[in-house]
Amino acid sequence: xxxxxxxxxxxxxxxxxxxxxxxxxxxxxxxxxxxxxxxxxxxxxxxxxxxxxxxxxxxxxxxxxxxxxxxxxxxxxxxxxxxxxxxxxxxxxxxxxxxxxxxxxxxxxxxxxxxxxxxxxxxxxxxxxxxxxxxxx
Length: 137
Prior knowledge:
Elements: E1 11-17, E2 25-29, E3 42-47, H1 52-56, E4 64-65, E5 67-68, E6 71-72, H2 78-86, E7 91-97, H3 114-135
Antiparallel strand pairs: 1-7, 2-3, 3-4, 5-6, 5-7
């Protein structure tokens, strides 16, 4: 999966009631902390064992969260989304892309950032130049 919406069938609404440990999951992503290359969406990074999300069973690690209580998350910073979750109230309605064929586990494919590839290229070029230099000494 590449994190694009064309791999999903339809949106699914998941209603969770906040428990003693909150909603029971962690998130990653946002415009300032992209989790999936070229996608500023918000993704579930961890489902806590006995939390509300684990007890419900539909939300999975790697799922993209489209909205919370009707507020769209695309284009928001990570901090802004965390604040939305904190102030969402006791009952929270999440909208996530539906899974094709009823499968769960929509772990997005991670693609390396362009900067990382550039650094690898520079290091590779330096290694080649060092090799050529050592051969001529």
